[in-house]
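Q:
My hope is that you can spare some time for a protein that puzzles me. I hope you can help me see how the letters and the tokens relate. Thank you; the sequence and its tokens follow:
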Amino acid sequence: MKPLVSIITPMFNSEAFIEDTINSVLNQTYTDWELILIDDCSTDNTVTIAEEFISKHPNIKLQKNQTNAGAAVSRNKGIYEANGDFIAFLDADDLWKPNKLEVQVSFMQANNCDVSFSSYEQIDEVGQPLNKLVKALPSLSFNKYLKTNYIGNLTGMYNAKNLGKITSPNLRKRQDWLLWLAAIKTSGKPALGIQESLAFYRVRTNSISSNKLEMLKYNYLVYKKGLGFSTLKSFYRMILFIWEHFIRKSKLIVSTNKK
């Protein structure tokens, strides 16, 4: 019997993207999965679109927040509801390639791996390729990962059967970084990176990554509030972060333009 994969997808006013996102799960070659959608009080047609899929597919489930609570609370609600041996995440505007789950589950089983992630490609808001590939590091230790967020959340998967349910702290942004830090620390082994590109990350004009000052602010809060470091230590970690993120991590983003 194949292991069950629980897929957690928070939604908020995602009507423009959620149909394609759900279809990318339905198109998986690996079929032993459940998709848990968590709506964070959307005011558009997100829930209506989701309910159309749920009426046809019993392995798609929907949870609704009573108040707008943010991505961390939504993801955690999905994690608590999850029944899977493995837990994976897919935001409501991102996409998976059809072989994503099959490749990743096989990789984790073959390598006795607790935490894995993969390379992925970037697309724009309307789904057109940006001709950029973000390469996964082959191995990622806790100390290396502490320097900057190397895991694209849409590619991450952890073994809940081995590690238990790893949840996010309640920060409005960058909580996924803290979740993967906790998973790697609990495992005691490095996360392993799959070199094949298995997903498409949608770059939004209002995203944190498009605003460098906002990104630095929220990364500081990861160290200060998320990890409980002192102010001095948090500023020191930010110096290391700037070097790691803008110098070393930037080298992992390569062009896919064919000349």
